[in-house]
Design brief:
DNA primase DNAg catalytic core, N-terminal domain; Dna Topoisomerase Vi A Subunit, Chain: A, domain 2; 5-stranded antiparallel sheet; 32% helix
Length: 322
């Protein structure tokens, strides 16, 4: 079949996440200004599958050997100068490989990301009926979280600063692979973690019937809306692999501060949506506390987009009030 990258005219540049960037041919053909900033992107998945995304006008299409060419794919091929007869022949050739497609689907396995099993610090499950646990229960309640949301550990029997903390276990494939401690005093650091590179908090909590996964920065953000937390303001290759293994729409909700907004470009490179609701609060957990869980989720879904223009506009609006 055809090698799509060899058909794209002009200069190309490969990004760190595997996308091949070039001047998008779709923009001018869809009534937008001609792209001169290499906003078109193609990422391949083996020799027989590719995805196209314009990060300017949001035009999308793709190809999988064994499936018919879609209307958008045919349109892209036309825009780069392929005649209709050749497109028809390629469409017919693709359909002749349907058996290969069926075999590949059956044989495809999720890419593995492995973590070493570790031990948790000594602690006890937080208990709403234990008077010694009241300070921890009150803190979680203030964050819009109930103790049934996660197996939080506490250590009221320990002296010093470690007595004033909530321990949050990190699991992957139902094995303990690390933890973080959230200290309840006013000292810094607020969090002290034992975390392995590439770990994605909340991965085990995702259900098979979920249609999307909301990706946030902080652990309490994730717990607030049953999402996944990066625990920092970047998406590593290992985390991207885990998110892709979920096989559903990924919606990244950055913290609305200077460092949080930097994640938007990486999210778009990976083909994810971004949501920046007009909350006037810093993050998802703050929004849940202020507006409630349901209203927060609805606002995330209503504002999700892959349009770089819309995201840039929202980033500028947020930056003005920081």
């Amino acid at each position: 079949m055809f090698e799509i990258l060899s058909l794209i005219p002009g200069k190309k540049k490969k990004t760190s996440s595997g996308w091949q960037s070039f001047n998008a041919p779709c923009c001018v053909n869809r009534g937008h200004k001609e792209d001169r900033r290499m906003r078109g992107g193609i990422i391949t998945d083996g020799p027989n599958k590719w995805t196209y995304h314009c990060f300017n006008c949001d035009f999308k299409c793709g190809f999988v050997l064994g499936k018919p060419l879609t209307k958008n794919t045919k349109q892209l091929l036309t825009w780069i100068g392929i005649d209709n007869d050749q497109i028809t022949r390629w469409n017919f050739e693709s359909l002749q490989h349907k058996d290969l497609l069926d075999f590949t689907d059956k044989q495809r396995e999720k890419k593995k990301v492995k973590f070493k099993e570790t031990e948790l610090p000594e602690g006890e499950l937080v208990d709403v009926n234990n008077p010694k646990h009241k300070v921890y229960v009150d803190y979680l309640h203030k964050r819009g979280i109930t103790i049934s949301d996660y197996p939080f550990l506490v250590t009221p029997h320990i002296e010093g600063r470690n007595s004033n903390r909530v321990i949050i276990p990190f699991t992957h494939e139902n094995k303990i692979v690390g933890h973080t401690s959230r200290f309840l005093d006013d000292r810094k650091p607020k969090f002290i973690s034992e975390q392995q590179s590439g770990y994605l908090f909340g991965y085990d909590l995702q259900k098979s019937d979920y249609q999307f996964c909301i990706v946030v920065e902080g652990i309490f953000d994730a717990l607030s809306i049953n999402g996944c937390a990066l625990t920092h303001n970047a998406i590593s290759d290992e985390q991207a692999t885990l998110l892709n293994n979920l096989n559903r729409k990924i919606i990244v909700v950055p913290d609305q501060d200077k460092t949080g907004l930097e994640i938007c470009d990486r999210a778009l490179e990976l083909g994810y949506s971004v949501s920046l609701p007009d909350w006037h609060v810093k993050d998802v957990n703050d929004a849940v506390v202020k507006y409630g869980k349901l209203a927060t989720l609805l606002s995330i879904l209503q504002n999700e987009t892959t349009s770089k223009i819309k995201i840039e506009m929202r980033r500028k609006e947020i930056a003005k009030r920081l």
